[in-house]
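sry for the spam today, last one i promise. C-alpha coordinates for design, 76 residues
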Protein backbone atom coordinates (compact mmCIF):
# COMPACT_ATOMS: atom_id res chain seq x y z
CA UNK A 1 0.00 0.00 0.00
CA UNK A 2 2.78 2.42 0.92
CA UNK A 3 4.61 1.72 -2.34
CA UNK A 4 1.43 2.54 -4.28
CA UNK A 5 1.06 5.80 -2.35
CA UNK A 6 4.69 6.68 -3.11
CA UNK A 7 4.20 6.02 -6.83
CA UNK A 8 0.95 8.02 -7.00
CA UNK A 9 2.55 10.91 -5.10
CA UNK A 10 5.56 10.85 -7.43
CA UNK A 11 3.32 10.90 -10.51
CA UNK A 12 1.33 13.84 -9.10
CA UNK A 13 4.55 15.74 -8.34
CA UNK A 14 5.76 15.15 -11.90
CA UNK A 15 2.41 16.34 -13.29
CA UNK A 16 2.56 19.42 -11.09
CA UNK A 17 6.17 20.16 -12.00
CA UNK A 18 5.54 19.78 -15.71
CA UNK A 19 2.45 21.96 -15.45
CA UNK A 20 4.43 24.72 -13.70
CA UNK A 21 7.08 24.38 -16.38
CA UNK A 22 4.45 24.92 -19.07
CA UNK A 23 3.06 27.91 -17.18
CA UNK A 24 6.51 29.44 -16.78
CA UNK A 25 7.67 28.83 -20.34
CA UNK A 26 4.48 29.24 -22.34
CA UNK A 27 1.91 30.78 -19.96
CA UNK A 28 -0.15 27.66 -20.66
CA UNK A 29 -1.86 25.69 -17.88
CA UNK A 30 -1.96 22.17 -19.30
CA UNK A 31 -3.93 20.68 -16.39
CA UNK A 32 -6.59 23.35 -16.69
CA UNK A 33 -6.72 22.93 -20.46
CA UNK A 34 -7.15 19.15 -20.28
CA UNK A 35 -9.62 19.12 -17.37
CA UNK A 36 -12.04 21.84 -18.39
CA UNK A 37 -10.75 25.20 -17.26
CA UNK A 38 -9.28 26.85 -14.22
CA UNK A 39 -12.49 26.83 -12.20
CA UNK A 40 -13.56 23.29 -13.11
CA UNK A 41 -14.04 20.97 -10.17
CA UNK A 42 -11.77 18.28 -11.62
CA UNK A 43 -8.98 20.81 -12.20
CA UNK A 44 -9.22 21.99 -8.60
CA UNK A 45 -9.17 18.39 -7.35
CA UNK A 46 -5.97 17.70 -9.29
CA UNK A 47 -4.40 20.88 -7.90
CA UNK A 48 -5.35 19.78 -4.37
CA UNK A 49 -3.94 16.29 -4.96
CA UNK A 50 -0.69 17.77 -6.27
CA UNK A 51 -0.47 19.94 -3.14
CA UNK A 52 -1.10 16.93 -0.89
CA UNK A 53 1.55 14.99 -2.80
CA UNK A 54 3.99 17.84 -2.15
CA UNK A 55 3.22 17.70 1.58
CA UNK A 56 3.74 13.94 1.51
CA UNK A 57 7.04 14.55 -0.30
CA UNK A 58 8.11 16.84 2.53
CA UNK A 59 7.19 14.10 5.00
CA UNK A 60 9.34 11.62 3.06
CA UNK A 61 12.26 14.04 2.78
CA UNK A 62 13.50 13.41 6.33
CA UNK A 63 13.79 9.61 6.01
CA UNK A 64 15.46 9.98 2.61
CA UNK A 65 18.01 12.50 3.93
CA UNK A 66 18.72 10.23 6.93
CA UNK A 67 19.35 7.29 4.56
CA UNK A 68 21.81 9.41 2.57
CA UNK A 69 23.69 10.36 5.73
CA UNK A 70 23.82 6.69 6.78
CA UNK A 71 25.25 5.65 3.40
CA UNK A 72 27.93 8.38 3.54
CA UNK A 73 28.89 7.42 7.11
CA UNK A 74 29.43 3.80 6.16
CA UNK A 75 31.41 4.66 3.03
CA UNK A 76 33.93 6.92 4.83
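last one done:
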Amino acid sequence: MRKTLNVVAQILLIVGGLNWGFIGLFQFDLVSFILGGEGAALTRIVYILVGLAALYGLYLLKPVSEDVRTVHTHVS
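The chain has one domain: 2-75. ok im logging off now
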